[in-house]
Amino acid sequence: MSCQTADELIHGYLDGELDLARSLEVEQHMRECEICARVFRNQTVLRSSLKEESLYYRAPEKLKKRIQSALHKEAKAELFPRSFGWRWLTAGASLAFMLLIGLVVWKLLPSSIRSPGDELLAQEIVSDHVRSLQMPGHLTDVLSSDQHTVKPWFDGKVDFAPSVKDFAAQDFRLYGGRLEYLNNRTVATLVYQRRLHYINLFIWPAGQAGSTGEMTTQRQGYNLIHWTSSGMNYWAISDLNSVELHEFAQLVQQGL
Amino acid sequence: MQKQSKLASFEEAVLPHLDAAYNLARWLTRNETDAEDVVQEAYLRAFKFFGGFHGNDGRAWLLAIVRNTCYTWMQHNRSPELSLPLDESHEIESKDLNPEVLLIQSADTLMVRQALEELPVEFREVLVLRELEEMSYREIASITDLPLGTVMSRLARGRKRLQQALTNPVHAEVLS
Q: What is the ipTM of this complex?
């Protein structure tokens, strides 16, 4: 074994990660080579100085409490989507009637938003939106109001090219973009600003080509609008009122 | 009910590794407040993806998420660490190192801490996982998404740099 080979293998030997044959070769080499033997001794000493207990940072107790409370909130939000539920119970007698209405509405809705998956997705989008505003610096990965900066930023990060337009003239200012993990895939997220309100616009390819109309819903006080256009899924969410958010959705659809 | 048990099993599988998560985040961000924020964010991410966790090594699974969250944090904060490519020309040969063992032995914890903190993040993370967290090469490889051989060579190079920092007399003088 050459010193050059041993130079790296000594570390595998030190860590007990070599197989028996390799270990024996390293031992044999160290018996013959004083330099490599010294390297090994030095590294043994170095290792023991790293075992000092105070080098290990233990989590402060308050962090544990903070995380537990954040987790409970998150679990609660997942458990009670806040939209369905009690109404059905109190409706009691008119349940059959409501079912009938429901059926009619169901028939009228575009097929792409009927699935219970959309219910979960809407909840996931609300969680993402809330988190994007909670964590400092989490709102954008690329901070720019220039569509020619934001659009190329997505190159190579997602397997599609989202359209990026600034609507500053209509008072929906492009604020930046980021990546999110939604619906089991990486999606492009554009952030717009209107006055003090932020709008998150999530974009990813739909399963099939074509377009569907807007579907509007509310979750936890946020307005959500979903539509499909040119084979892409769009979800816009904001605490902005539904009229202005609708105006925004129209702009995006016309801009495409 | 189902979600409640999700939280319970999550807390049971992942919460005990809070120290490991914090230690890694603290060494990578080199800052207490940032480490706390990163760890909290990592736990929320982990909770979200907990449905996809089927293994039994909650620690390695969590640390991979913590590491990713740290790197995202470094990108957001435009940490110079991520833009500086590793300078391969300064690779150290073992035989060129100061053979003085005594200097390392007498190095106090403060010096060791500072030397480790000053290592490039690529070396710091494998050393923290190996020496402080006592993880196997296989676990480190899965957390850092590196081949096993690269884990070993990063450890080798990182330790040489650390030894150099601790035995370099100039450096030692500055510290004392």
A: 0.85
